[in-house]
Amino acid sequence: MKIATLIVRVLLGLGFMVFGLNILYPFLPMPPPPPEGSLPAHFFAAVGMTGWMKVVGICQLVGGLLVLSGRMAPLGLAILAPVLVNIFSFHIFLMGGEGLAPGFIFALFEIFLIYAYRNNFRGLFTTHATPTP
To answer: How far apart are CA 132 and CA 129, in angstroms?
Structure first.
């Protein structure tokens, strides 16, 4: 289990680190833009003009680095979880399921690592939460 956790942690961390850096400083070839007037085109117009993708890129980079380092992997996983929800939502609702495979693989990696670090997340799933005095 330790070796599998290490491999998945490195793959997830590197993936989000690279794609986060690519959002901030583009170096990978970009896919062709969506057809004008389509839902994805409207989405990209909104997030592009507002700078929202820079925030997403920073979250991906920081989350990926934390997962990759291993020292604060649970925090990195918590940062990356909403990013994965957004990736899934985009591909399901705006792309009609097209291009979902990479997000699905990363989501499986995330779920595997949350399970591997489950003791660190135990407090989130309690039904008797109380504030710290």
So the answer is: 9
